[in-house]
Amino acid sequence: MTEHNKLMGFETLCIHGGHKTESNRAHLTPIYATSTYVFDSAEQAVAMFKGEEKGYIYGRFGNPTINEAEDKIAMMEAYGLKNQNGEPLQFKAILHASGMAAITTMLLSNVKSGEKIITHPSLYGGTQEMIDKILPSLHIGTIIMDLHDLDKVEQTIKTNKDISMMYLETPANPTLQCIDLEALASLGKQYGLTVCADNTFATPYLQQPFKYDVDFVMHSTTKFLNGHGTAIGGILIGRDMEKMNGIVTKTHRLLGGNSNAFDAFVLTNGLRTFSLRMDRHCSNAMKVAQYLDKHPAVTKVNYLGLEHHPHFAIAQKQMKHPGAMLSFELKGGFDAGVQFIDKLQLCTSAVSLGTCDTLISHPASTTHVGVPREKRLEFGISDGLIRMSVGLETIEDILNDLENSLSKS
Ligand SMILES: *Cc1c(COP(=O)(O)O)cnc(C)c1O
Fold this sequence. Notes:
Largest sheet: 7 strands, mixed
Strand content: 5-15%
Bound molecules: pyridoxal-5'-phosphate
Radius of gyration: 22 Å
Number of domains: 2
Number of helices: 15
Oligomer: single chain
CATH class of the largest domain: Alpha Beta
Shape: globular
CATH topology of the largest domain: Aspartate Aminotransferase, domain 2
CATH architecture of the largest domain: 3-Layer(aba) Sandwich
Structural class: alpha/beta
Order of helices and strands: HHHEHEHEHEHEHEEHHHEHEHEEHEH
CATH superfamily of the largest domain: Type I PLP-dependent aspartate aminotransferase-like (Major domain)
């Protein structure tokens, strides 16, 4: 739980949020490399295990380095939000070993055997595989449908009484599909569903799903939150304290997908410059999108800041800025994609996203090479589709690298 709810600017929160004074007067919270914590007395041990006294017990349950990152991110998601009485909202966050671990804890602490999840296409690959390969053996089913037709969604929820969760991810790969958080969360809650949102692409700086009736927000902190590509991590944030302190904490502890002090330290360190980084990521991405949109070798640019994107209006409504992710299609198809990647001299050819450097990938020849072509096209991944996470380099250098790589021979 966040400790201080003083009115702070977002930038101040990035730097100071969640920090607690250290007993040895260390400026930064140290990396707590210890697996266990010492009890002063048998009495204290009893009180702690009963939950009557707060304190650290065992590393899998958390430590001060992890706690700082958790509180900082919980405060970011709550930033500026108020309840009906005008009081600031407070959330609880639990840091995990990865985005997938956070998503797993969320799913397994909320959905029971015999129930179903309603969601949409183009989820993060790992989440999709979880739904396809792990959940069915637990008798948890999934209905995947276009969530833009609200009447159809409502009919589906009405006729499938076993749906208990609505799972949203917005924006999503590869064409930056957006889901209307306000409309869907309110529909989901109207039918008593648990509504959750993967906010990794947008980050709390650009989009706060808790503004709407969302119950849980997940992030892969590996991406923009860490921002430097130094650690894998994930976070699960919830508004229902009883549930967060109860079944969610229990599930997190027992599944064992806990984070560690080093990863938490580098995450907190990255978060100090988070808002500054996001501003530059976003302004660079807008310039890249505008440049590519006019390039003769490019047939299509998928960027939420371009008016021709089908979800431009949804993004305008729920995001502070269209973000730093984009994709585009090369006229020359598969071969052009491979050649383009090979010619890059500045931008980094790698999967993942949200790091300081610009990351570029060609899904057809890498992440989706094993997916049959028809299936791949169905997902919107054409032969010449290039995905780009726009970094913080000097914009002219990024544009020059693109220009050189897009030119023939
Ligand atoms: C990367 C990612 C994940 C998974 O996170 P890991 O940290 O790799 O486990 C989940 N959702 C989205 C949208 C992602 O980009």
